[in-house]
Design goal:
With about 140 residues, the chain is of the alpha/beta class. Helix content is about 25%, strand content about 30%. The protein contains three helices and eight strands; from the N terminus they run E-H-E-H-E-E-E-H-E-E-E. The strands form two sheets. A four-stranded mixed sheet has the order 1-4-3-2, covered by helices on one side. Strands 5-8-7-6 form a four-stranded mixed sheet. The protein is elongated and about 55 Å long.
Length: about 140
């Protein structure tokens, strides 16, 4: 038996990061909890102060295969390298030949750059470029492999 889990990302702009990661991963806004007509209705029922309604954003994998993502506003800025990061597996894995894998990685890097990510570093392997370290719009590192 496994334990269900989700990844929570501290940030300064939950809506901005949720839009980026929704586009990056093909995720969708999380559905409204059962029994409520809207997230606003849920927030009211749980007595969340109105000035905190924009403090979170919630995404889910529409296929149900991958973990959910939560973005929570925090007062402090990011100051150091992430100890945990996502690997966006655009290339298809090491079993895919390099000459097929790298063009997929390069195309995804270009797409994500267009969404607001920045390239931090490219890492090379024995056959040539292997993966790219990027940062999302708030500077959180992730890799495209």
């Amino acid at each position: 038996m496994t334990t269900l889990w989700k990844l929570t990302i501290d940030c300064s702009s939950p809506a901005l990061l949720a839009r980026f990661w929704s586009e990056a991963l093909g995720y969708e806004p999380a559905p409204v909890p059962a029994g409520y007509g809207s997230w606003q209705e849920w927030l009211i029922a749980y007595e969340v102060p109105e000035d905190e309604w924009e403090d979170g954003a919630y995404l889910h994998d529409p296929t149900g295969a991958a973990p959910s993502l939560t973005f929570l506003r925090v007062p402090e800025a990011k100051t150091v390298k992430n100890r945990l990061h996502l690997d966006v597996q655009a290339g298809g894995g090491q079993q895919v030949p390099w000459d097929q894998r790298w063009p997929r990685v390069a195309a995804e890097v270009e797409r994500l750059t267009g969404l607001g990510a920045t390239v931090l570093q490219q890492h090379d392997g024995p056959d040539g470029p292997d993966h790219v370290v990027m940062a999302d719009p708030e500077g959180n590192e992730f890799c495209v492999v």
